[in-house]
């Protein structure tokens, strides 16, 4: 059987790669893709813990389904916002959308 | 090294490789396509973890809807992006430092904790049990999730709608003719 720590290691690495993408990219869609990577890493963690620690109760899978649901809603609204900003400002680089900076 | 462990290692290498490609590629379209590949490998992880319904949901929703939506957005905002020089901002080294420190802390915790692994088997009819759990114990979050999706639907339509002048411009033009 695959040890639990292997899944957790892969999830940790994916989370930190997504964190770097969310913090370092200039394109707003690139930041959103980093956030999606983080959410997927969290889902892998949830399902791995469900499978190895409490296989009888399905709480881990239910939680993962809710995370996928909320991620879908967030991606839809985030991309609608990005498209709206692009229509008004002709740019999706987050550094150029700085009207509210002091 | 069993077959499953070998499959896991292949999937892990592909997942981490495509994820690195997602966050470092200068071409945002390549990033979106590599994200699709990464999400497929995550579905493969779910299959290895015997969460088959979740693997199907992942492919349907994440790859089939979210990744396609991201590709739409990339192509709708493509016009200005081909001239972008850098893909990362000025503080990329701080982000790299933070990510490396976080992964070091998380790996330390993962490798030194005594996880209480149980030998119990998964439910025989996992999908039936999942449906029953979702509609009995977690019915309230289930209903809230449906409201969240409705809000997201309405909000996305309103936010991304084209601005049109109030009134009936088509009828006015026909009247002038």
Supply Rg of chain B.
Answer: 23 Å
> Assembly type of the shown chains?
heterodimer
The largest pleated sheet of chain B is described as:
none
End-to-end CA span of chain B = 80 Å
Number of strands of chain A: 0
Describe this protein with a few key phrases:
heterodimer; A: 102 residues; mainly alpha; 75% helix; B: 177 residues; Four Helix Bundle (Hemerythrin (Met), subunit A)
What does it look like?
The complex is a heterodimer of chains A (102) and B (177). Chain A has 102 residues and is an all-alpha fold. In chain A, 75% of the residues lie in helices and 0% in strands. Chain A has three helices and no strands. In chain A, helix 1 packs antiparallel against helix 2. The termini of chain A are far apart. Chain B has 177 residues and is mainly α. Chain B has a domain at 1-84 and 126-162: NADH-ubiquinone/plastoquinone oxidoreductase chain 6, subunit NuoJ (Four Helix Bundle (Hemerythrin (Met), subunit A)). Chain B is 75% helix and 0% strand. Chain B has eight helices and no strands. Chain B has helices spanning 3-24, 28-48, 52-76, 78-81, 92-112, 126-136, 139-159, 169-176. Chain B is extended and about 65 Å long. The chains are: A mainly alpha (102), B mainly alpha (177). At the A-B interface, helix 1, helix 2 and helix 3 of A face helix 1, helix 2, helix 3, helix 5 and helix 6 of B.
Please provide a brief summary of the model.
The complex is a heterodimer of chains A (102) and B (177). With 102 residues, chain A is mostly helical. Helix content of chain A is 75%, strand content 0%.
């Amino acid at each position: 059987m695959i040890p639990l720590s292997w899944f957790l290691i892969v999830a940790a690495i994916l989370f930190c790669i997504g964190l770097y993408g969310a913090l370092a990219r200039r394109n707003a869609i690139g930041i959103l893709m980093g956030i999606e990577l983080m959410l997927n890493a969290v889902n892998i963690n949830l399902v791995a813990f469900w499978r190895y620690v409490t296989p009888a109760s399905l709480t881990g899978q239910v939680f993962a389904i809710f995370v996928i649901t909320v991620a879908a809603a967030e991606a839809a609204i985030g991309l609608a916002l990005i498209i709206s900003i692009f229509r008004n400002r002709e740019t999706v680089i987050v550094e150029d959308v700085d009207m509210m900076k002091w | 090294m069993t077959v499953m462990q070998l499959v896991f290692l292949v999937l892990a290498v592909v997942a981490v490789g495509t994820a690195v490609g997602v966050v470092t590629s200068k071409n945002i379209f390549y990033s979106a396509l590599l994200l699709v590949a990464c999400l497929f490998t995550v579905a493969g992880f779910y299959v290895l973890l015997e969460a088959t319904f979740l693997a199907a949901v992942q492919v349907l929703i994440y790859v089939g809807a979210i990744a396609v939506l991201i590709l739409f957005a990339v192509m709708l905002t493509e016009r200005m992006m081909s001239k972008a020089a850098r893909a990362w901002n000025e503080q990329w080294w701080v982000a790299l430092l933070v990510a490396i420190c976080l992964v070091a802390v998380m790996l330390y915790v993962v490798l030194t904790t005594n996880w209480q692994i149980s030998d119990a088997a998964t439910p025989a009819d996992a999908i039936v049990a999942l449906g029953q759990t979702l509609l009995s114990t977690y019915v309230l979050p289930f209903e809230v999730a449906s409201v969240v999706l409705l809000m997201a639907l309405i909000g996305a339509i309103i936010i991304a709608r084209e601005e049109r002048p109030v009134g009936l411009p088509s009828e006015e033009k026909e009247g002038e003719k």
